[in-house]
Amino acid sequence: MDFASRKPLYEQIYENLRDKINREMYPIGSKLPTEKELIQTYKVSRITVQKAVNLLAAEGLVRRRSGVGTTILKREKSLPSNTLLGLVVPGILKSFGTNLLIAMATETARYGYSLIIKFSQEDEQLETKCVQELLDLPVRGIFINPLQRSFYDPLLMQYILDDYPIVVMDKEFFGIDEMFVGSNHLNGARLLAKMIEKLGHTNLGVISYKDISNSTLQIRQDAFVQVYAHTDTPLKANTFAKIIETSYSHHDDDAALNLDIERIKQFILRKKPTCLVVPDSYIGALTREAISELHLKVPENICLTGFDINNELNQSIRYTYVKQSEATIAKLAVKMMADRLQGKSITKRVQKIPGEIVDCQTVIQKQLMHPLGQ
């Protein structure tokens, strides 16, 4: 493995295993090495190996079965371009991404298409390159989950405006007449904000990224402002702590990680919120560590909630969150693309799926707490 490469280890392992399957080092019908063996071979974590194998499963090259192992189903083969669709994603969060990829591959296959997956690594130039490579193949249409940073790729914008078959997922491009499928982030955030407000929490802390801004993050923040604007305690500017400088795709520097955790700790000590809200599982994990280092208990001393979650976490360290249905997003996105390619009229170009609160008992009545400083 090239540990100096900007390409994530899981993607390098995925490409290496895919190459071995294509060269019949792992014949069809045989088993892929076990997780333990792959961990030893590549000298990486179990999570990294799982991500790599999940990508193989998303492309239909292998099938994973608990207790049986991972079976090789087929090799890649050259496909006529009229059956190809492209998918560009920034990466895979533990809370959002893996199930979407698998569902996208399954749904496209059901319509008779094959999916070419490209990773933009949260990089603007690489996203443009991924789109151009798919156009050069050519593919018949492109699905794209944009970067976390608000970035309007001129190449992509031009093709959307020219009505090329492009379906945007998860994060909207404001002001563009696009085909979009994603969660109803406003609805989900309002549900969460109303729940928190009804439980008596008026001193909140909403933790977010310092240098990352996109439509999803802004919509969620606006929802909290709107809900509390109709109460006796509207949210103040210091509720929103844009302090996180690392991200899920760029967090190899332990010193930078520790600085982010320290910033969260200082924010908690300074503002003394009774409830913290996080935008994703990455900041959720940093916040959990900060809370632990302060020797605070959830929810007795401080409540924790947010959006999306790493389902591999033990139940004891999960938090109440708004869940996105990756399978539904994939199903609607692929149907929209198929209808567009078949010349059908797209009467509803923007489709949003309602969010659902999953209660993990980490937000309780404020009056039942023993919060910091009281």
From TrEMBL:
PROSITE patterns tied to this protein: HTH_GNTR
TM stretches of this protein: none
Repressor keyword on record: yes
Record keywords, A-Z: DNA-binding, Repressor, Transcription, Transcription regulation
InterPro entries, alphabetized: LacI/GalR-like_sensor, Peripla_BP_I, Tscrpt_reg_HTH_GntR, WH-like_DNA-bd_sf, WH_DNA-bd_sf
Molecular function GO labels: DNA-binding transcription factor activity; transcription cis-regulatory region binding
Entry-linked Pfam families: GntR, Peripla_BP_3
PANTHER family registered for this protein in UniProt: LACI-RELATED TRANSCRIPTIONAL REPRESSOR, RIBOSE OPERON REPRESSOR
Protein name (Swiss-Prot/TrEMBL): GntR family transcriptional regulator
Organism name: Sporolactobacillus sp. Y61
UniProt lineage: Bacteria, Bacillati, Bacillota, Bacilli, Bacillales
